[in-house]
Design a protein that fits this description.
By secondary structure, the chain is of the alpha+beta class. It is 21% helix and 27% strand. It contains 5 helices and 10 strands; from the N terminus they run H-H-E-H-E-E-E-E-E-H-H-E-E-E-E. The strands form 2 sheets. Strands 1, 2, 3, 4, 5 and 6 form a 6-stranded antiparallel beta sheet that branches. Strands 7-8-9-10 form a 4-stranded antiparallel beta sheet, covered by helices on one side. A hairpin with a 5-residue loop joins strand 8 and strand 9. The termini are far apart.
Length: 363
């Protein structure tokens, strides 16, 4: 007895007949036609996505069939600005990479070397030592005595560079003594090795009377002394030269004292005379006539007060003023000396309310 047939089952295919649902070779497949599964295999089920519009929603547009060789995407034209920006940044990156490469290659070929230290400014030149050497050298150079001709070369040799002749500049005759020397400006060469020092020298000449040399007059001489710095010290690099020491006028932009205050000048003249009288004698006396909180040293009897030739107070604020005084000092014997002072006056108030102006500073 044959077993009962399951509902929906297909009868077996006869040998030699094509499988139902399977296309024959060379036969195209249309639409939703699917090949039949092989014997013993279950046909896959298609998952259907539920439409958000429900079962009665209209079907979407059919997908267009692509032609042979047609790409499945569409191209859009690029704007001119995008093209320029892309090319600009691409060129910038290339330029940076080339510059980095060139710099690196140059550093390999010629690496940076530490620059040699060059002294070229006056601040690095030892100006104080140069002044000291030039001062002593000037005194040695302008001092000689024919009675002791070897003394000068020995003194000059203390500061003259080695290898230079210490006897140069003097013929070995006469006598002269350099008493004092004061250095001034140091002009440094741009190279920072050499300099010229301005020196004033006070000398006494000796006059010849027969076979004797007698002391003569004193005079000031001005020298330009060449110096040079070495690894160990500053040396004189040659003979000094005389330069003129002429007078010069005051500059046009000198600060003025201000506008005169004639009333205050007249009111304080007696106080000014009392101050200079005490200023010439002692510290105790001058402290009694100066403004509170001020300390002024006296001349301690070196001269005596003669007369206040001129006194002038200038305008300013209510608490402090500037004043000038022309004073005649009496020296030893009949000697007198006129000097001009600049002073600072300060207004003080006494306990009884009285006001007065007193000297707070000199100079």
């Amino acid at each position: 007895m044959a077993p009962p047939r399951r509902p929906g089952s297909r009868p077996p295919e006869q040998p030699g007949q094509p499988l139902q649902g399977h296309p024959q070779p060379g036969q195209p497949v249309y639409g939703d036609q699917q090949p039949a599964p092989a014997p013993g295999q279950r046909q896959p089920e298609r998952l259907r996505q539920r439409s958000p519009h429900g079962a009665h929603a209209a079907p979407g547009p059919a997908r267009q069939v692509l032609e042979p060789g047609q790409t499945p995407w569409a191209t859009e034209p690029e704007s001119s600005f995008s093209t320029w920006a892309r090319r600009f940044f691409r060129g910038l990156v290339v330029a940076v990479l080339l510059l980095a490469a060139i710099s690196g290659i140059r550093s390999w070929i010629s690496p940076n070397r530490a620059p040699n230290t060059v002294v070229g400014s006056q601040t690095s030149f030892p100006v104080d030592e140069a002044r000291a050497i030039a001062t002593r050298y000037s005194i040695s150079y302008l001092t000689w005595d024919e009675a002791n001709p070897d003394a000068r070369p020995a003194q000059v040799g203390l500061d003259l560079a080695a290898g230079l002749d210490g006897r140069t500049g003097w013929n070995g005759r006469g006598k002269q003594v350099a008493v004092l020397a004061y250095p001034g400006e140091v002009k440094v060469d741009p190279g920072g090795v050499a300099a010229a020092v301005d020196v004033r020298v006070y000398i006494q000449q000796y006059d010849r009377k027969g076979r004797n040399l007698t002391p003569g007059a004193f005079s000031w001489e001005r020298l330009s002394v060449p110096v040079a710095r070495t690894a160990s010290r500053v040396v004189a690099s040659g003979a000094p030269t005389f330069v003129p020491d002429s007078r010069a006028a005051l500059p046009d932009n000198m600060p003025g004292p201000g506008a005169p205050d004639d009333d205050l000048t007249a009111a304080t003249k007696k106080d000014a005379e009392a101050f200079f009288g005490a200023y010439a004698e002692s510290d105790n006396k001058v402290s009694a006539v100066t403004a509170p909180g001020s300390t002024i040293r006296s001349l301690n009897g070196a001269v005596k007060f003669g007369v206040l030739k001129d006194w002038q107070v200038y305008t300013g604020n209510d608490d402090e003023r500037r004043a000038t005084a022309a004073v005649t000092w009496n020296g030893a014997g009949d000697t007198t000396l006129d000097q001009t002072y600049t002073l600072t006056l300060r207004r003080t108030v006494a306990t009884d309310g009285a006001q007065r102006w007193q000297v707070a500073a000199v100079g």
